[in-house]
Every structure is written in C-alpha cells, then in structure tokens.
Give the backbone structure.
Amino acid sequence: MTPLLMPLEGHGHHGGLDGGFSVLPFVDSLLLLLVLLAGAAAFFLWRKGKLTLPTLAARRSPEDQAKQILADRFARGDISTDEFMERSSILNWTPGSDPSPRRGSRKKRR
C-alpha cells in the first residue's frame, strides 16, 4: 500500500487524528452562521435604505445626472416650481415621464 492510501494511525470514527473529540465541525458551523447573519443584516439594512450597494449597471448618462440633480434641488427647496419647470423644459424633460428608476427608489415587483 502506498503512503497516501494508508490510514492515519489512531484515526477512528470520532473525527480527530488522535481518536479524540474534534472542534472543527463546530467552528465551520459557527462561521457559516456568522456569514448568514451578516448577509441577513446587510439585506435588512439595504431594504430599509440605510445601506447602499454599488451599482453594477452602466454609468448614467449626463442627461440623467442633470435630471437627478434638478429633481434633488427642487426636493430640497433650493429652486421654485417655476424654475424647476423651466429648467426641465431646457433638458427636454417632462418630470414623471421617465421609465428609468431614480436613485434611492425601488420598483415594486408584480
């Protein structure tokens, strides 16, 4: 028999090399539990809007960025309704007509 196929001396059904009790299965289970808890916490924070994840999609166009900046300024009260409408018409944009989702908003699945 080759040395690689020979059983280790003292290796029994208990899992340890010395035939005793092994802690490794419990460490693996604990690490798996910690990873699952961290994933659940990250998902919860993301759903509540407290955690933002980097987008893997293509970068937004300059026009979309300009629309978002304009909408943010209007939402903060930095510009008036008239100024918002004037600037959105310059961008050839009718607010509320874009099918693309905005930053921080989530589409509801049906």
